[in-house]
Structures are given as C-alpha cells and as structure tokens.
Amino acid sequence: MSDLPPRSSVKRWLVTTNHKDVGILYLLTSVFFLVAAGVLALLIRIQLLQSGGTILSGVGYNQVVTAHGFIMIFWFLSPFAFGFANYFVPLQIGADDLAFPRLNAMSYWLYLFSGVLVLGSFFQGATFMGGWTAYAPLNVPAYIPEFGEVGSFATIVALIAFVGSVTIGSVNFLTTIYRMRAKGLRMRDIPLFSISILVTVWMMLFAFAAYLAALIILSSDHLLHTSFFALETGSGPEATDSGSLLWTHLFWFFGHPEVYIVFFPALGALAEMVQTFAGRRLVGRKWFIISMALVGIQSFIVWMHHMFLTSINLEIKTVIMVTTVAISLPFDLMVFSLIYTMIKGKIRWKTPFLFSIGSLVIFIIGGITGVFLGAIVLDYSFRGTYWVVAHFHYVMASSAVILIGAVYYWYPKMTGKMYNEFLGKAHFVTSFIGFNMLYFPMFIVWETPRRVFHYDSGFTPFHLLATAGAFIFAGSFLIMFYNLFASLYSDRHVDESPWAYASSPEWAVSSPPPLDNFPGKPSFASGKLNFLDRAGTDGGAKSETATDGGVATGDETLAPPEEHADHASWWPIMVSSSVLFAGLGISGLSVSYAVWPFALAIPAFIGFLGVEGARQDGFALIHGIYVMVAFPLTVALLILFHLGIGIFEAVGNASPYFWVGLIGSVWGSYTLAGFGYESFEVPEPKMAEQWPFESVENTKLGMWAFIASDIIVFGAFVGAYIFTRFEYGWEAWWHIAEDPSAHTMAGQALEHHPVLPGLINTYLLLASSFTVVLALTAARHKGNYSLGPLTISSRQATLGFLGMTFMGAAGFLVNKGIEWVDLYLHQGWTFGVDVMSSTFYLTTGMHGLHVIIGMLVLLFLIARTYTGAYVGENEDAGTLEYFGLYWHFVDIVWLFLFPLFYIL
Amino acid sequence: MASTKTYTAIFVALMALSTTQAAVEWLGLLEENYWPILGVILVLSSLKAMAVAGWFMHLREEPRSVTYVALTGLVGVLALTAGASYSII
C-alpha cells in the first residue's frame, strides 16, 4: 500500500502520518508562529520606546502582550521542540515510527488549526487581553469589554484544541518510548534527547490536564454563566477571593511544570550537542537523568511560588519556598555536569556548540535570578516588575536559543546538506549580542511595571537599548533563514554523520533517513547498534553500523520498501479541520445564541456511523437502523428547537457563527465516524525492548496513559469543588443558597440530602460497568451458551451485553435529565446562582458528557460486533477491553461524585 | 480475566456498598457525627473504586507498572487538592 505521494507533492503533506514528515511540518509551522509572535514582540518594544507608549492603544497593547505570550509558549516553543521529537525519537530508539502514526498526524493538525483559531481571534473584535496567565476575574465576560468577548472566548477554545493536540501527542510518545525500543536498548541507555522527551511528556500528560480543567471551567463561566471565577449576582458580577485564588491554583499547577515542559526538550538537545562537540560522554550521565526525573516530579509541588502575593497562608508559602529552592539543586547538578563535560572534552567550535554554550550562560543568569523570586520576601518587591520579565525570558528564551542550535545540529541529518558555517557563526554572534542587549537592561530597570507601558522616564535609555537589541535579535534570524534556505540548494552533501563524535543512532543512517528509517531491524542486543535482516529478525546481521566515532561501516542505507512504511490518511486533517469550524462556531455562541447546531452533531454522528459502517463492513441491518434512527432524531430535535426558539426566525437572523458551527458539527460527525471506521493496523514490533510494560499492548498502555490524564481533569474539577467548599466553610456549604424565595437543592438538602437520584444513578452505572465486563467475557468465550432449551451464540451474548450497557447509560442520562429539569426549571436553581450550583452542574455535567461520548462509542462497537468484529477465534476483543477501561473509569469517577455531591 | 462468578460477586458487593453509603445518610448518622462518617463514606467509595479498578479493569492481572501510571495521576490530583485547600485554611 505504498500510496504515499512523493515529497514534492502537496498531497503528501496533507495525508502523511510518517513521523519525519510530521516532524518537518511541526518545525515549519512553529517557525511561522515564532515569526508571528516575534512581530508582536517587536510591537511591544516599539511601544516601550518611551513611557506612555508610541503606536499602540491601551487595548491594543494588552492584546499584543497577551497574544505574544500565548503564541510563543504554546504555539512556538513546545511544538518546535516536538518537531525534533517527532523526527528523532523513533530514530534514536530504533523504532520505525511512533506507536500511533495516525493520531500523531492528528496532533499536528489540531495544533495547526488551534493556531489558526488563536490568530483568527484578533479579527473577531479583539483577542484575549488579560495576559497569558489569564488571572481571574479579568478572564470572565463581565470584566472583558464587550467588543472583545467573542475573540477572548475564541482564544480559550483555541487553547482547549491545543491541549487536545498535546494530550494525544503525550500518550503517543509515552507508548512509543516504553514499547517500541529496539532490542537491547534499556531505558537508561536511551539517548538524552529522547529521555528528556520522555520526562517532558510525563509532565505534559498531567500538567495540561489540569489546564484543560481550568479552561473548561472558564468556558463554562463564559457560556453557562457559572460562578467559579466571579460570582454572578443580581446587581452584576462580583469578583470573589475563592474565584481568583481557584484560577491561580489551577493555572499554576499547570503553569509551573509548563516551564520545564518547554525547557526539557531543549536541555536534552543541549546535552546531546555538548557530548558531540566535546567528543565525550556526558559526565555523570546517570545523575543527569535522575536529576531530570526529580525536577519532573518536583515541578508539581512548587506552583504556589507564583502566588506569594495572594492571600494564601504563610505556612504554605514557606513550604513552597523550600521546595522551590530545592528544585534548583538538580538543575545545579545538570549545569555542572554540562560544564565539566566541556572541560574534560576537546571542544569543536561549530555553530551548534556556540549556541549551546551561549544558551548555557543565558540559562545560568536566568536560573540565578529566578532563585531571587523564589524567596518570599524578595518576591514581595520583584513581583509584577521587569525583574520577572527579564528572568523568565532568560529561561524560556534560552530554550529557544538551544533549539536554534539544534536546528544547525540536525539540519544536515534532515536535509542531507551542510549549512554554511560562517553564516551560522555570524547568526550566533548577532543573536547573542541582540539577546543580551534586549533582556539584560530589564534587570537594571527592573522597577518598570510588567504589562504596563508607563515607567519612570529615567529608565528610557535602557528601554531604548532593549528595543535596539530586540531588532538585532530578530534580524539575526534572517541570517539563519537565508543560510538554511540557500544551503538546501548547495552541493555540500553529507553522508551519515558530519560530526566526528556524534554517538546517537540517528547518525548511523543516511541523511536524510529513508522512509522507514533503518536498513534493517535495529538491535542493540550485541551491545552496539546492528541492523538485522527484516525478513527473519532472528537471522544474522545484514550490515553493521558502528555509532561510536562516526566511522560508519554500513554501506547500504536505502531500505527496501516496507509494507508498513506509510499510513497515508485524509482523516486526521479532516477531523482536525472540523475542530476549526466547530471552534469558530462555539466562539460566537455569545452572539449567535444558537446551541442547536451542536446538538445536531449527535444524530448526525449516528447516521454517519451507519453510512460509514456500510461502506467499510458491507451493509447490514444495523447500519440501516442507525440511519433510520438518525432522521427522526434530527427531526425531533428540530421540532424541539422550533418550539423553544422558533427556527425560522433563528435561521433568518442567524449570524455567520451559526453557519460555521453547523458546518463544524456535521463535518465533525462525519469525519469522526470515518476516522473510527478506517481500517488501520499498525503491527506492533515483534522484537522490542518494552520494560516495564512487556505484556501490555500499545493501545492498552495508551488508554491507561489517557485515563491517568483524565484522572487529573476530573480530579481538578473535584479539587475545585473541594477548594471552593473549604473557602465557604465545608459544613456551612449547604447554607450558601439560603434564599427564602428559592426552593433550591440546598433547601432540600438542609432538610434531607437528596440522595435518591444519585443512588439510582450509581446503581445504573455500576450495572452498566458489570455488563461491559460480561460483554468482554462473552466475546472471548469459545462456543455457544446454552440456557436450557435456548442456545445463544457468544456474538449474540456480546451484543446483548453491549446493548444492556447502552441502556444503563441511557437510563443514567434520563434520570439525570429529570433531576436537572426539576432543579433548573422548577426550582430555579440555575447554573450560576451560587458556587454550589456551579460546582454541581459542571462537575456532574462533565461526567454526563463522558457518558454520552461512551454511548456514541458503544453504538460504533455494537455495529462492529454485529458485522463480525471482536468475537470469535480469529478476532481480537481488545477494542472492547479498551472501551471497558474507559467506561469503568467513568464509573469510578461517579463513585466519588455520588457521595461528594449527594451525601456529604 | 476473572470468572463470571467473581465479576458477579464484585458487582453485588458494589451495589451493597453504595446502598450502605446512602443508608448511613438516611439513618441520620451523618448529622450526628459528621467528620467520622464522612471518613467512612469516602473509605467506602475508595474500596469500591479499588474493586472496579482491580477486577473490572483487570489491574490485578496487569504488570504493577500500569497501576503506577494511574496512581501517578491520582497522587498529582491529591497534591493539587490538598495543597490548594490547605493554602486557605
């Protein structure tokens, strides 16, 4: 199935799932965002030429500052690093590709389209204006100017889509690194860049989940007018202590690890470059790795050092100050390890090394000035000043500088051509001078207030200097772009490795590497990298390529075509594009007031499941049923909405957001159904190092990683509830809504907790969990079941149990619906009437959404089971098992929501 | 995979424990002794969660490393909730 078009074809780049192609797409796209956010940075610097500003209005400046932060951190730094990760991690660990290539392509397209959304938000009135930290209450509608509401919400939607991309990518890399290593490659022997990516994706998996929860809560405050971050009162919104603190907790629980998420891939690349150009193995390599892992863990217990000036108590501040100072210790070890490696080795002053040592200097300055901020007393003075701005640019931008070095380091590998060394060095010199001219003066005039363009006029010369530095720094990139572009067409060809002492496996294959990476099956079993005959992996070595010293003896690096080398697919880009349309539509909900295009997605999805199922598996009765059910469901929904709001008027006066939302939801339903049905087998490597997950299939490990991240998402919702409840007084909670005119749930609760609806739903969900297990048991059962005179095939039994699961879930939703209608409509206990109702509706609502998603997947599974999948000798019931994992997890969440929201 | 009999026993136990949680409230025990009973109810929920994870999600049969993946998420959330809640007490 070698239907992957050549690289000269545009189609190739739209359908590719190959990790190297995706890596290049990531790199190019992130450079585009670097330029975009860089231009914003220049605007900031021009504005700061004199106190009081020059060219931007106040509102314009706020937008520029905010978008600069968002785009640099999310759409440039991490994706730039993950461009390299995509390209090199499989090469470094001896894998043919990532574990889930098609999901990998989807990660990329989601990233791209989320970026389009965030850039588009500028043209939807105004983009978000509250800074990248988006502190409450400036992040809720009541505190956002009306013209900025749509664009602000579009930014939030873009961030949610971006988190989706990140989560899929994290699961993919985790599974790949644990399960796809070449034979003999122990975890500790993985090249440092790939190790740094492993630590990074672990942090990503958990940190971004907390951010996702925060963003969903924020969306709910925007769309449903819940009262998490500001209280919706009769006389207008009111900022609350608990709301503002809740945001900072959720945000920085993500935000601090995010700093290391951005920095670690660069650190890994730095270690590789230092090793290569010092011609020496990293000194204390083991301790370097342990330090990285330690920082990864510690990064989750330092977040409150961003909150020293909030009302949190002194005890916790002290604890956090200690953990913060402690986190600098592993970094010291890593820095000394790098320096000592340089001292012990013999340095080759190539461009990548210049960037490495330059960035190390920058990072040391950034690190030391950060420790100042970690001290509570000093932070009281430094907070909100340019000391902070200078510090984090020295840290964050040092990772950019390292990665620029990595561009020069890996450019010959990716293109097969050598860059121009003189221009590379010229780029380093100008960028290093520009960088320090730009950021160092900020330490001197640190009393300049952050995010404000009014400052002491005595500071003006320093700001002039910084602005000049900014232009030099920006200009230096032009040298690089020219160099890389011109070198592409030069005749400076390189073979496997242009670096004398490069030792990681990517340097043992040709440049650029062939589509399927290796000239044979890579193996480290003999202690060094060999390529074995692919036909029989137990056969002898076909060619042998030494990776130490670059004296490669492999003569043939162009691999024969492999049957699994490409998995060209249109679906990843199509699914992701629907997110763009749907996201645009959702962003305009506050002006289009039309939810029903999105509700239509459900019947549309059911109908498309029927259509796609018939196309892929051959028409069966079940497909007909799905299509037939989809129509009346659609009509019923339309009638419902007509009765509610009057469809003809609504459509007649519909805003463009309405139509874009409609397109997005229908297109999304179609593409998701198609994505699910596409036959897509990725053979798991038969011969691979898989500790510590030897007996866990790729998909199962991926599922568990996803569940671990979902634990954080739900946990953050529950945590938000517990935090808010503590803030209002745990036992006084039910008294919050003691409004005599409202017969609220709280009112009942004071009399008697409304346990019954929750208990019924617990029964229903537990039963549906039980039937999922039985469905799996039946699918793996050999032969028929006989119940007296009745004989039931295992397929029928599987179908029966899946059907019962669906019914259990449906019962759960109906019961929940009755409860909600009663509370919301009859008792007037609306979403935002108090914090109690907000936590109740959103947390149980998110759980309900999981149930709905599970039901849609169940419909897919039922159709597939009906047409012959999963059950029987030659069929793999794995998919049912993986779905079961999800479903049981949703069940477990409810086991805690039930007591927390109905009993206690 | 465990036997159908085991799954059924787990299911019955889960239903019984859920009923117990509700019964504790209906009997008015919670009003009398709020914090200890809160502890009991949450312990019961944890037991149920462990039963679902251990048997229905087959964690007992998987390598321990899979459990650690899930536990890492749990520890993260507990850190967030405990840290945030403690910070305002």
Automatic annotation (TrEMBL), chain A:
An example Gene Ontology CC term for this record? membrane
Q: Where in the cell is it found?
A: Membrane
Q: Name one Pfam family in it.
A: COX3
Q: Where is this region: Disordered?
A: 539-558
What top-level branch of life does the organism fall under? Archaea
Residue intervals of the Heme-copper oxidase subunit III family profile domain? 559-904
Signal peptide range: none
Bilayer-spanning residue ranges:
21-44, 64-89, 109-132, 152-178, 190-218, 259-278, 287-306, 318-341, 353-378, 384-410, 422-444, 464-485, 568-587, 593-611, 623-645, 657-680, 701-723, 760-779, 799-818, 838-862, 883-903
Q: What is its main location?
A: membrane
State the UniProt keywords alphabetically.
Electron transport, Heme, Iron, Membrane, Metal-binding, Respiratory chain, Transmembrane, Transmembrane helix, Transport
CDD domains noted in UniProt: Heme_Cu_Oxidase_III_like
Does ATP-binding count among this protein's keywords? no
Q: How does the record classify its membrane topology?
A: Multi-pass membrane protein
Q: Is Repeat one of the keywords UniProt gives this record?
A: no
Per the database record, which ranges form the Cytochrome oxidase subunit I profile domain?
A: 7-525
Q: What family is it from? A: Belongs to the heme-copper respiratory oxidase family.
User: This chain belongs to which protein, by name?
Assistant: Cbb3-type cytochrome c oxidase subunit I
From TrEMBL, chain B:
Q: Where in the cell is it found?
A: Cell membrane
Tell me the keywords, alphabetical order: Cell membrane, Membrane, Transmembrane, Transmembrane helix
Q: Does the keyword Membrane apply?
A: yes
Q: Which sequence ranges are marked TM in the entry?
A: 38-56, 68-88
Q: Record's superkingdom?
A: Archaea
Keyword Transmembrane helix assigned to the entry: answer is yes
Cited Pfam families:
COX4_pro (PF03626)
GO annotations of cellular component type: plasma membrane
Tell me how this protein sits in the membrane.
Answer: Multi-pass membrane protein
Can you name this protein?
Cytochrome C oxidase subunit IV family protein
| Organism (species) | Halovenus rubra
| Taxonomic classification | Archaea, Methanobacteriati, Methanobacteriota, Stenosarchaea group, Halobacteria
